[in-house]
Amino acid sequence: MAIAKAERLMNLALCLLGTRRPLSKRELRGSIEAYLEAGNDESFNRMFERDKDDLRELGLVIETVENLEGEIGYLARRDSNRLPPVSLDAEEAAALGLAAKVWQQARLAGAASGALQKLRAGGMPEAGDPYEGQHSAIEPRIPVHEAAFEPLMLACRDRRPVAFEYRKSNAARPEPRQVEPWALECWRGHWYLAGYDRDRGAERVFRLSRITGKVRSRAGKYTAEVPDVVTVRETVASWAGEGGERSALIRLRAGAGYPLRAKATAVREGADGWDELEIPYGHGLDAWLVEFGPDVVVVEPADLRADVVDRLRAVARG
User: Fold this and answer.
1) Burial of 117 (0-12, 13-18, 19+ CB in 10 A)
2) Is the pTM of the predicted complex or chain greater than 0.85?
3) Cα(76)–Cα(84) distance, rounded to whole angstroms?
4) DSSP 8-state assignment for residue 209
5) Structure confidence at residue 131 (pLDDT)
6) E strands along 45-174, which residues?
7) Does the pLDDT value for residue 240 go beyond 60?
8) Percent of residues in the chain assigned helix, strand, coil, to nearest 5
């Protein structure tokens, strides 16, 4: 079974690499013996989609092209699937080895390991990672617990629109969203997706932990241009009040709200189980404070306190 699949993948890769024009599913089915033996169109479609995804996971860049008749074709251009000579010094190779360790306990562990193997096969020395076999006191880790991470990562890679249910911080129920995903980024232990929200006609950033249910793929191409640089962290930071010119005074329950304590410019310990913190106040701070629920009380300014109260009331009303 494993040999048959490997042979099928090799034949599909050769067909896609050897063509000068996009090949349709119909043409690929007629060119590969294993596809001809598929019982029906449904079985063939499932097999082809799995094989295409497997080849992409292995690093083959497969383009999807629509012709004038609306038929979808596939090809893998040789110039897009050829690595330049790999020349890394010891420090660069060590940095790549350390970066791969970040994903050891995430869904990208296999991809990171495979990427290192390809680079070593292309010229990176085996001894390029000085951390191999050692246990450092501090090792990088990026937690990935959200079920939405993998389908969104693949959608970003393939430039594929998606749909999902999303619950805002001040809402009791999720709302449907149709998004053209651009990039994923981790900020302060949380994953965020940046993309174009079709319903709102504007760029938006979504926190993955607030996505409920399954992420569903949507057919069609992107309708908005993907920017050269997607500033996920900067956008989230501005919403969280980072870099705000004003200052807010809040009361925080002792032993709670460590992210708030980390950004505080001043902390005064109280004797009643509550501490007073001064934190930068910028756009979006009210939404962030609501997440801490009964552990936070805004003292001033009055407009921030009113915004937080309004959000809490909206959640209570459902």
Assistant:
1) exposed
2) no
3) 17
4) G
5) 45
6) 63-66, 72-75, 162-166
7) no
8) 40, 25, 35
Report the SS3 class of residue 298. strand
Q: Can you read off the two tokens belonging to residue 56?
A: 């992409």
pLDDT, tens digit, for every residue of 9-45?
Answer: 999 999 999 888 899 998 999 888 888 888 788 889 9
Q: What is the mean pLDDT of residues 283-297?
A: 83
Number of residues that this document lists for the chain? 318
Taking CA atoms, 55 is separated from 118, 131, 189, in Å, by: 14, 30, 31
Q: Supply the pLDDT for residue 12.
A: 92
CA separation, residue 139 to residues 99, 105, 136 (Å)? 10, 12, 6
DSSP class per residue in 22-42: PEEHHHHHHH-HHHHT-SSHH
Q: How far apart are CA 240 and CA 288, in angstroms?
A: 6
Angle, vertex CA 267, rays to CA 265 and CA 270, nearest 5: 165
> Can you point out the beta strands (E) in 218-269?
246-253, 266-268
H-only helix segments in 63-213: 90-102, 109-121, 149-158
Q: Average the pLDDT over each of 30-34, 99-103, 214-218 and give the range with the smallest value.
A: 99-103
Six token digits for residue 192: 């965020």
- 172 and 318 in contact (C-beta within 8 Å)? yes
- Alpha-carbon span 10 to 190, nearest angstrom: 39
- Which residue type is seen at 84? P
Would you call 180 helix, strand, or coil by DSSP?
strand
